[in-house]
């Protein structure tokens, strides 16, 4: 959704939506001086997707004290977060870190904005809520990379069932939960299938069910272990609300447990090592502040500091603490060459078509009266289109066999894993320009989910704290494979859209806008360079590697399979930064699984109750 549409939605929301008062927590603090203790058993840096899970699970043991430090605000103070359809309106607002990349040479020198949640729940509070966990190939590849069977597909099943619960739809025309096997789960995150039959669901499924190309097949459940096919979007929402790690894990724990404290509006600026010389440096103190020039205070963990500040934040904190590549740091305590490296995201481009149908969502973005009615319906009943995400259906598929020079040249993690994703939107989702004032549209979001390009994050020269954003460089489309794969992805999309279900009754009229002129491979590559972005799934800057007897640094990853930072003591990392390879799926469910397993590993390490 464009910035223009976001502002229009928010203006109407302010007028019509009676915002509920923020829920107040007895254990929520807005100033470090008010926190009752400077020492806790565990200090969790970041109340995002993983940090909120850890806060809930570790505080299950009443004998352990837990402090969570969050840079942003409480999710309960931002009512817009609750409304699934308005997810994109949260970007470039006060609940977004508002990161920007360095200019990307593969995108004709353009810089990209990178939304990340600056709020409890982290990006699970502002994302598009897609709920995918990847294929069995993906998890088995993690087990192979780390030499730890605990990361295998079979081993993570118990955590998958522990995370979420499938809930009934809010409308009568939706599909029923018994159509996918996720209903076996019984966890705190609510997950639902599409509440409404939003076009072009029928066109997509008719094309998949009649396709001659087996890559275009229908799948009942993209989370079955075989990710390939076109299926229903599963989303982390239920009963008309977004379901985030804050609403599912953190907030209920805060409301009921005296051993859990939350400090918001506060940034951890670095970790501080113990001056007592030991075999390996011990980092159990965190320095924190609420402004660059304000007081910098120290808090101490007696057991562990857990970094859950995200792919950018966790790596930046380690670098500021003197842990990273020695040739990049002014002061080095531990030379760890891989810190900040291996940054990956899914490159994405959108293409647009006009359609011969008034049954699209374009009118919502043009008709303020209709928008007001939809907001009022959501406020009163938590039903209507706004109770749903705009994404109804999507597809995951591999590139054609003829694309690869050899069997081993496919970077996907296995035969059940995709290279590409197609997301179908029944409106013109131009990211930076106003929506067209007339007409009806189909936009297809095309992502390369097995990219080979890798980038990095580095400190801005002379920066000393996390109030200065790091230098983020995805190196988007830096390899020949990624460029060719994105062009092929457009070709595959057009092939899928040539099925009779799209041409029947003249439904699909033709390409729209700049894309209409991209008719050759060279023109399509230029279109991609001019318009591509990332889909906002950054991972890998503190990648996990296998155990080695000496825990040597370099080549074995930044953290070991139990997520301990190599070369130091007292610090564990639990977030998307530890993933050694980018998931060929949307990443939030993967991070939930990582966090649940991490909680068990921590409980085991410290002999805690509930293990």
TrEMBL record:
Record protein name field: Uncharacterized protein
Pfam families in UniProt: GMC_oxred_C (PF05199), GMC_oxred_N (PF00732)
Requisite cofactors: FAD
UniProt record similarity statement: Belongs to the GMC oxidoreductase family.
Segments forming domain Glucose-methanol-choline oxidoreductase C-terminal: 451-595
A molecular-function term among this protein's GO annotations: oxidoreductase activity, acting on CH-OH group of donors
Domain of life: Eukaryota
Keyword Signal assigned: yes
Biological source species: Tetrapyrgos nigripes
Binding-site residues for FAD, renumbered to this chain: 119, 268
Residues of the signal peptide: 1-26
